[in-house]
Amino acid sequence: MSTPAAAFDFSPLFPADLPPPAAKWTGLAKFSFVGGNNDPEQVPVEKLIAAVEAVLKREGQSLATYGLAHGPQGYLPLREFLAAKLKRDAGMACTADDLLIVSGSLQALDLVNHALLSRGDTVIIEQETYQGALNRLTRLGVSAIGIPLDREGMRMDALATALADLRNRGVRPKYIYTIPTVQNPTGTIMPQARRSELLRLSQTYGVPIFEDDCYADLVWDGKRPPAIHAMAGNGGVIHIGSFSKSIAPALRVGFIVAPWEIMSRMLALKTDAGSGALEQMVLAEYCAPHFTSHVPELTRALRIKLDTLMEAVNEQFGTAAEFEEPKGGIFLWVKLPDNVDTLKLYQSALAAGVAINPGPEWSTDKADAKSRLRLCFASPSPEQIREGVAVLADVCRREFGVPLRIANVERTARA
Ligand SMILES: Cc1ncc(COP(=O)(O)O)c(C=O)c1O
Predict the structure, then answer these.
(1) What backbone torsions phi and psi does residue 406 show, to the nearest 5 degrees?
(2) 386: CB partners within 8 A, 6+ apart
(3) Which of 6, 256, 285, 381 sees the fewest Cβ atoms within 10 Å?
């Protein structure tokens, strides 16, 4: 009998710059307020089933050809739907030729980054921003300058100062990354006048704008300012978007609108022989007749969940929790008293079954974000929201002594 072979050791083969290994998936927490997950009740399952059947019956045989013979930019009817939608909703004058369908807008971030960035480069981003964008920049060895936000998004006075400082030091940033329409995590919408000012600064300093409009469909009153892309006269804006927040994130379908000069570079970098075709076909089939009625239904349901979350936070944390009401989207960005360290709170809350996103992971200013956290209200049910926030408040009180009162019961009365 042969002796069992020793397990093969891959470790000497890994390149030095490989990221640390991923942790194994251990399942979702009982009360999950993390990630950008959507409301399961709002996935239009029946109509998606009808769309799958209709499109497969009509065009299923085209799956035999890479890219459905529609070319590397994606399924033409989906690009045509998007071009019309972006014109109607965001004022953008683009055609199907200016659009590239990608595997979620995370792939858009990768393609834009790979086309523009080298180690040691500098980019400008919002101080509080999307963790996925921030982590990518860290991994690429790119310096990210965070610009503070106010209730109208990125502050233009601070941006002007940063651009001038960088120019004085001989640094030309590669782009200004912004989430102007329902910012992640703060939930602000940049008004049109500020968008104009941003464009003016971009032109003055010769720095393109990278506009991430991932949440732009989820605005409570349905009204959004024109996209920065729509307002730019010189083609210096790369615009990305996604179906993750308007339909479902597991579909993994996003898009990029960019001038050919950069589109052609990104196409050369997109070496996956096309993003999943079935998802694109189903989305095009579903969206053409149903998108405009689906979105208001979705936002109404999300708004009710936000109200449930804000009520629960107010009831459980009282004045210990501060937040601005978001203008749309799926997140509440909360400030707790200064002594709360949300990285520690995250660990203890998780042990009690509650998952939260600790603030420092969503900010370039880790100290400022130490006592902040992000709560996603789209995916938990109203009962999970109420129960989960109560557990979180209990854990926070135990660990940090705040909130002093829980649901109007004195701390001493519960002790
Ligand atoms: C601002 C922003 N951009 C991009 C993404 C990536 O989304 P997806 O790859 O699902 O389109 C997210 C996801 O939460 C996000 O919040």
Answers:
(1) -120, 125
(2) 308, 312
(3) 6
Q: Flag residues of the chain having pLDDT under 70.
A: 1-2, 405-415
Half-sphere exposure of residue 207: CA atoms within 13 angstroms, side-chain side: 27
Q: How far does residue 180's CA lie from ligand 1's centre (Å)?
A: 13
Q: Which residues line ligand 1 (CB under 6 A)?
A: 36, 104-106, 130, 132, 179, 184, 212, 214, 242, 244, 249, 254
**Could you give the 3-state DSSP secondary structure of residue 46?**
helix
Question: How far does residue 91's CA lie from ligand 1's centre (Å)?
Answer: 22
> pLDDT tens digits for 172-224?
999 999 999 999 999 999 999 999 999 999 999 999 999 999 999 999 999 99
- Cα(39)–Cα(297) distance, rounded to whole angstroms? 12
Residue whose structure tokens are 């209990």: 394
Which atom of ligand 1 is closest in space to residue 130's alpha carbon? 1
**Which pLDDT score is estimated for 409?**
56
Measure Cα distances from 159 to 55, 100, 163, 362 in Å: 47, 30, 6, 19
Q: Whose CA is nearest to atom 13 of ligand 1?
A: 36
